Amino acid sequence: MPDVVTLIDAHVHLRQSHDPAAVLDGAVRHFERASTRLGAKSCEGVLMLTEAKGEHGFDRLASTESPIGRWRVESTADPHVVRCRHDDDRSLLIVNGRQTATRDGLEVLTLASAIEIEDGLGVEETIEQGLEAGALVTLPWGFGKWTGKRKARMLELVRRFGPKGIALGDSAARPAGLGDGAIFGLAREMGVPILPGTDPLPIPRHATRAGQYGLWLEGWLDPGTASEDLRHRLASPLPNDSAIGRRDGLVRAIVTQVRVRLG
User: Fold this and answer.
1) Given 20, 142, 185, 257, which residue has the most CB atoms within 10 angstroms?
2) b/e per residue, 182-209, with b = 16+ CB within 10 A?
3) What is the pLDDT of residues 202-216, one digit of tens each?
4) Is the pTM of this model over 0.85?
């Protein structure tokens, strides 16, 4: 195991209903536990935002001059990245990124990028726009979204866009114990990266969820071009042991979905 690791949650929302200090506190705790399990001597945590229409958490962080709990926000040389530093000097990198809803009922993430793509376009057009903008384009797993006709659609998309550099997104909400299934299986066969993340939902207990499930990379990110470094390193197939943390059990996953649908 390397002495230095970068720990990444590749699917994060800074929900309006969540205290941002609680999000940061929870993330650093999860990452420290993961670092201990990996046996690393030093780690840096990264939260990759996937903001939907109307969500502007990155902009709020980047523009704030006031403390967030025991955290302060610092700009970096990379316009897509801010550093949140705790008063005990622990820190997290927050990386801009967006989530777009397509008319096909699928979502497209454009990671480590500020591009905003209009909701409601076809999934192929959305992917192409993200790739043209240089974003790390990721198709995330969603509860019930990769079944039926959309399962066949996803298999087509992996075959078509996998060679162009897209990734798939795994989720802490995907019940633990489930196998890869056909879509993740095809992605692994083709060498398409699979990026784990938590995808916090707008319910109270998800305020501290960020960092619970993610991945690790060896060494530090380039401090001046962290978003470019992420786009490059995460576009390549990852080792089978790259995931950190845990997914929800079946019962918890179902209960969470019921709570979200009941508001």
Assistant:
1) 20
2) ebbebbeeeebbbbbbbbbbeeeebbbb
3) 899 999 999 999 999
4) yes
